[in-house]
Amino acid sequence: MVIIGRKLIRNAACLCLFILLVITIQIKSYPLAGLWILGSVLLWIFFDKSIKAFVMTNLCFGIGFIFYLYAATYWTVHVDTKELSVFLNRFSLVMVLIPMALLSRFSGSPFLKYWKKPVWNEMISFPFIWSGFHQTKVKTFLIIALTVNVLIFTPFVIGKGWPFIKEIWLLTIIFSLTNAIFEELIWRGALLSSFSEQLGEKWAVVLTSLGFGLQHYSLGFPWAVCIAFSIGGLFYGGITIKSKSIVPSIIWHITLNILMFLSGLIIK
Q1: CA dist., res. 149 & res. 95, Å (int)
Q2: Does the structure show a pLDDT above 60 at 2?
Q3: CA 70 to chain centre
Q4: Is the separation of the CB atoms in 43 and 14 below 8 Å?
């Protein structure tokens, strides 16, 4: 019981530290940055090797996230075409991956553990991934999820009209592919791989889902919408764990990005 309690406190502290980092970088708060440094030092001193690895993952992610925000802002300043501007803005997410790839290279830890062929027939539960009132295969779950998304967004897409769609179709493809692939490589790829080794799969899904949602604040979304994105992230993370692959979450993410773009929720 003592061991379970200590582990719970440890993982909860890691959750708070990571969320603090994501928020701090976006709002550029020096006091919160100081609090994050203090928390990291305490975790490093009082916990084991896996938590030291967690702190290093946090640090590398934070460095990459800062460079990403800088690149996303200044790479597109003198770009003439909107298509190239959108591509460079989303491609700048690679800045987040570089420090984590270097950390993986020198520490020997897995970088993209879920970059493999999906196990489509693995069972997944609804609504809590590991438990719920209904179980189905990953491939069936994904088909149902995509169908629900299409049904929800179709009225909004139709409402925007054909001229709007014809004007933004190329932007839709560029944004949806680059954004979804790079965000999944970061959140369900590099971070989920690291956190699942350090904290366990369920905690890793919670951390990456909350971080994934909250980082949308830098894209101009209010915090309430960011929390809604975090809920979606739980399902992205869950289907990645269950299928042992980021391929299903990439497919789902691309589809949702296309629907949101054509609905005018991302670009007016």
Answers
A1: 30
A2: no
A3: 19
A4: yes
